């Protein structure tokens, strides 16, 4: 009996909040998920369940609004990590989510992910708007450059991306038209984060503007969103 109580307490904000019908409704409304083949959909649902299981939330917050917020965070993290069988060794083991007057992502003193979401934020209409704050805090570039025991470790491939990114930065500085914001050219980490965002949000445009950079992202994340968009005539998630 105690083990069941512990399980419920541990996953109060995880599987307890998960409702089969609401999950089905949420995912069926996400074009990106619907465009995946059945095998990739199963993979994303598995990741989705994993993230739900480690998410907690304050008991005094509205369940319906909180459920939608948790689903969105779990969905975005699932898309980002879908190309990897295991999460990075230093990936947060817990997600603490709450509703707030502004959207903010941080790590607490124990290294767990803290997500505050503004229900009036742009992420409501475009879930991938959460990619930049999540990617900044989770420091994806560090995972790619980690020790080789890390399943995300791709130092050589990441260094290839860095070399291409440096060329793109120079081109943007000299006035080349780019989907990437000009303010990102003075900060490589920010450029990488913006590439991740555009990779999922506007992959066709990123591939057209920066084909080599896009292909490097395909290799890093083991996904090809542009191909997915082409096959399904998607223009935006």
Care to describe what's here?
With 237 residues, the protein is α/β, with parallel strands linked by helices. The chain has twelve helices and four strands. A four-stranded mixed β-sheet has the order 1-2-4-3. Helix 4 (38-53) crosses helix 5 (63-81) and helix 10 (203-209) crosses helix 11 (211-221). The longest helix has 19 residues, at 63-81. The N and C termini lie far apart (44 Å).
The number of helical segments is: 12
Order of adjacent strands in the largest pleated sheet: 1-2-4-3
Binned, the helix content reads 40-55%
Structural class of the secondary elements? alpha/beta
Gross morphology is globular
The N- to C-terminal Cα distance equals 44 Å
Supply database-style keywords:
about 240 residues, four-stranded mixed beta sheet
Please provide a brief summary of the model.
55% of the residues lie in helices and 8% in strands. The chain is an alpha/beta fold and 237 residues long. It has 2 domains: 2-138, no CATH class; 155-232, no CATH class.
How do the strands and helices of this protein lay out in sequence?
Elements lengths: L1 H9 L9 H9 L2 H5 L2 H16 L1 E2 L6 H19 L13 E6 L3 E4 L5 E6 L12 H8 L1 H5 L10 H19 L14 H14 L1 H7 L1 H11 L3 H8 L5
Parallel strand pairs: 1-2, 2-4
Antiparallel strand pairs: 3-4
